[in-house]
């Protein structure tokens, strides 16, 4: 090798590294964008059901003796159609970065976990999903608590008039940590929820391609010899994955809402305890179906179309942006 070639080698390596870094950043950006858009589409679709779920979970005194459909009709009657979307604007501010970070972190976590658990791919899928969920929650949690409190309000009984007012009141009353009230059970619930949801989606995708390739699959656009799921296939896998994940983790969501909304509940003093004790309080007072799983029926109604939409839109956007979503049989 000549001296000129030797001198040029480090420069070539540096250029290659910069190119790889730019390529990786571009891919992360695409994952973030696709995830954010998918999350907003999915959450907007089920926004009315989200509002009803919050009212039922925390036993709002206007609706505590009502079921799902009775609550839906009463909210429409009391607050008009717009009442079904209360807090949704703030929710979109949270959902875009939440879903974007979650999917971006999932793709990166899959690579990291694969290096250490390449012999245990199923465990790797679960861990990657859990890591992604924890990352997304940690970054966007304050917006979740603000949105929950605004959605819990009913017409004529407003404590907060908007995002900044709610944030200011919470910080004034409880300090900056008030914006993170309930984050521990949220993170604890996110481990089984996100882990199970992503694991189930990836597993169901593989099953569809293996057992029903003609029904749910089509040739990969990148012509790699693999198969991509059709839109019905993605929707089916996404919906079932969401149903499984939410069933496993739902009690954590109920406890989280109790803590988030405790300052707005008449019996707020009961929830000023360690988060794990709230499980026993809810169970003792309301049991399982009307306590730890209260609102679960509406959650199934919302979670199936929501997760079907988020995974379908995410994978479809990735395909449109030229990213590989193929599965090799």
TrEMBL record:
InterPro entries: GDC-like, MCP, MCP_dom_sf, MCP_transmembrane. It is found in: Mitochondrion inner membrane. PROSITE patterns: SOLCAR (PS50920). It is a multi-pass membrane protein. It comes from the Eukaryota. Solcar repeats lie at residues 26-112, 120-207, 229-320. Keywords: Membrane, Mitochondrion, Mitochondrion inner membrane, Repeat, Transmembrane, Transport. One of its GO terms (cellular component) is mitochondrial inner membrane. Its main location: mitochondrion. Belongs to the mitochondrial carrier (TC 2.A.29) family. This is SLC25A16. It comes from Mytilus coruscus (Sea mussel). The lineage of its organism: Eukaryota, Metazoa, Spiralia, Lophotrochozoa, Mollusca.
